[in-house]
Amino acid sequence: MSNHTDTTEPEEDHSEETFSPEPRNVILTVPNAISVLRILSIPVIAVLISNRWLIWSLVVLAISSASDGIDGYIARRFNQVSRIGQILDPIADRLLIICSMLALGWAHILPWWLLIAVGSRDVIMLVEVLLLSDNDYGPLPVHFVGKAGTALLLMSVPVLIVADLRISPFFEVLHCAGVAGAIWGAVLYWVAGLIYILQGYMLIHRGGEGRSGDGIVEELAHAE
User: Fold this and answer.
1) Measured on CA atoms in the order 164, 168, 169, 174, is the torsion positive or negative?
2) Does residue 7 form part of some domain?
3) DSSP one-letter string for 2-37
4) Residue 187 belongs to domain spanning
């Protein structure tokens, strides 16, 4: 009879390294300060674009975009993830999209109808958030289609700014690519908006039938 003893060591749990820390109810943190500065930079970017100070607008936009990654890294690395920070970050993205596209429209770099398409979607989403809040529900989880649309819109802004320098014929092609990216971003933006509207409708009208709102949203997410 073998007396062999299993000396296999248990695997280390790296879950703490994999997942972000739980958000805390704190306000005065370095990441939150960076997020506020990022929001304050948005009207500066809009003014620079609308006055066609394109190089300066690219510089400020690059700094603002870099700060978006820096504040997230600091929050995770030093356990400073906060609930207010999770709110400020998407607000900054929305404001950057709307203000930048408004400035691009003012400078005749982007068609106005595209700005209206994006802006009207955000107005509808604001109404939905208020309706959900009135029914004691928080914001819906972000859908990957919405993330893709937001990313395309954010990437189209610097592309359109660079294209408007018009140093060579290549920049005309770049301008078309920027407009195409913005259009596809707006399409995905609206697809995500329709998903959110459906989720909100189901949450409000079926939430009182013995199931939690989170369960309904999870069910819809799996159905997609």
Assistant:
1) negative
2) no
3) ------PPPPP--HHHHSPPPPBS----HHHHHHHH
4) 110-224
- 10 Å CB burial of residue 13 (0-12, 13-18, 19+) is exposed
pTM beyond 0.70: the answer is yes
Residue indicated by tokens 């990654």: 69
**Tens digit of pLDDT per residue, the chain (224 long)?**
545 444 444 444 444 444 456 777 778 889 899 999 999 999 999 999 999 999 999 999 999 989 888 988 888 888 888 888 888 888 888 899 899 999 999 999 999 999 999 999 989 988 988 888 888 887 788 889 999 999 999 999 999 999 998 888 899 999 999 999 999 999 999 999 999 999 998 888 876 443 444 444 444 444 44
CA–CA dist 55, 167 (Å, integer): 13
- Note whether residue 9 is domain-resident: no
CB 106 within 8 A of CB 148: no
Q: Is 191 inside a domain boundary?
A: yes
